[in-house]
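Record type: monomer structure entry
Structure origin: computed from sequence
Chain ID: A
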Amino acid sequence: MQATKAIVLKSINFQESGKILSLLSQDLGLIQCIIKTIPEKRYDLVQASSPLFTGIFHLKKSSSEIYSCKEVSINCLNDGLKSSYFLLKSIIDFIQVILKTQIKNRPLPLLYQLISVFFHEMNKKDQKESFFSSLLLKFLRHEGLLNFDHFSENTKVSLDKLQILALSTNQSDIYNLNITIDEFKEIQTCFYSVIKSQL
């Protein structure tokens, strides 16, 4: 049995009351785990089967590449990430990028740390557009795909702002940028154009 912190990226039904979860885990990277039965009284398992849930999963490797899970410790439900339809859809679209671009069953500690930190910040703070813009640019940097010239030419966001979003490790710097919804949409559109060119 192995315990690892993980974020639920995707959840699909399995038989009558089970779930198959796609997880981004701290120690194992992008994996799948199965919860064969989720009794209504098992609040931890009910919550753990919801996308964006963050917790500690106790996993056992099966003969296939899918882990089995019977115990979960709740860390954060991340309800703040579901505060608006636009934000939730943006996060779901970003999760699809992770699922399409990352190799399964390979440790991704830096990516887990990046997404975990930014989901935590977006969950509790108001300037969600600023933090999400920073997450998108930092993801491209993680993948070796960040080109400031491309973003400067295709968005109205200043180069100074783009550099702070992509490079700063100080959360206050990012929070104080006050990225508007229109600026975020431009960064988002540019982000997906870069990702699409790599798929």
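Annotation 1: Helices lie at 43-48, 85-101, 109-124, 128-143, 148-154, 159-167, 171-175, 181-198.
Annotation 2: The chain has a mean pLDDT of 92.
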